[in-house]
Amino acid sequence: MLVLTACNNEDTQSTPDAENQGDKLTVGITQIVEHPALDAAREGFIEALQENGYDHVEIDTQIAQGDMNTNKTIAQKFVGDKVDLILAISTPSAQSVLSETSEIPVLFTAITDPVGAQLVESIESPGGNTTGTSDTHPDAIPNTMKSIVEFFPDAKNVGIIYNAGEQNSEVNVSRAKEVMDELGLTAVEAAISTTAEVKQAAESLIGRSDVIYIPKDNTVVAGLESVIAIANEHDIPLYVGESDSVKRGGFAGYGFEYHDLGYKTGEMAIEVFEGKSPAEISVQYPQSLELVINKKAAEEQGIEITDIMKEKATIIE
Questions:
Q1: Which residue, 18, 232, 259, 280, could crosslink 40 as a Cys pair with Cβ 3.0–4.6 Å?
Q2: What are the pLDDT digits (tens) for 159-210?
C-alpha cells in the first residue's frame, strides 16, 4: 500500500503519482448522513474510479449518521490509517477532515459554498490539500422562488425548515430570503438541530405557510418523509432543493444528478492519483439545471398541473 504520513503541522503534501498506480490505493469516504442525494454522489465517485482503471482501489466508507462527534472520529480514523485520499461528502464532513490533516489529499462533493466554509482559498485556485465539486448552481434558488410566484400567484408565506448549525443551510436560507424579499414573499422559518425534530417543525408551518421550501440541508433531507406527509395531508406545495428529493415526493425543485457530480469528483481523484495537486484543480459546479415536477406529489398535495408548469418543467411520474 502507498503510505502517506498525516501530520497537521507540516505544510508539505503527499500525493500518489502515476508510477504507483500498480500499488494498492486506499480511499476513505466520510459522509455526514445517508440520504439519496449524498448516496448517489458516493456511488458516482466509486463508479468513476472503477470505469477508469482504478477498480483496485480499496474503499473504506464511514457514515456519521448526523452525529458531529462521530464525524470527527471518522476524520481522525482516516488520518490515523494513513489513507491515500479522503472523499468528504457534505460540508460538515469536509470541515472535520480538514481540521485533522493538511497533508492527505482531500476531495469534497455536495458542498454549497466551499469558500464560505473555508475549505478552499478560491474556486479557481483552491490552494492547500483540497478541491472538489459544489452542488450549488447560482441560478437554482432564484429560479425556485420565481417559480413559486409564477405557479402560485396567491402565495405570500414560504415556510423554510433548516438546520441552523449547518453552514451550507445558512448560505441557502440567506440567499432564499434575499430573493423572497425582492419578490414580495415572506419567509416563515422553522429551525431544527436533529432529524428527529423535522416532523414537529413541519407541523409548526401548518396554517402559517402557503408553500414549504426545503433547502439543501442534510439534516432535514434525511427526514424528508415527515415533511412530505404533512404537505400531502394539508395540501401544501412542497418545494425542495434538489431533484432526488423531488423523486422522493417533493412537488418541485431545480436540480441535477448527484451521481454525475460524484462521478466528476472521481475523475478529479484520478488526476490526484496521477500526480496532480488538489491545489491546482479548480472547484467544479453542475453544468446543467432543470426544473422537475413530480406528478404524483402534485396530486397528493392538491395541485393541478397547469400549462405553464408543463412548459417550464420536466414532469416525472
A1: 259
A2: 999 999 888 899 999 999 999 999 999 999 999 999 999 999 999 999 999 9
Q: Whole-model pTM?
A: 0.75
Quote the radius of gyration of the chain (alpha carbons, Å): 20
Q: What local confidence, expressed as pLDDT, does residue 288 receive?
A: 81
Q: Would you say residue 7 lies in a domain?
A: no
> How far is Cα of residue 302 from the mean position of the Cα atoms in its chain?
29
pLDDT value of position 217: 92
Higher-pLDDT residue of 171, 20: 171
Contact partners, residue 77, CB within 8 Å, separation at least 6: 28, 62
CATH of the domain at 84: 3.40.50.2300
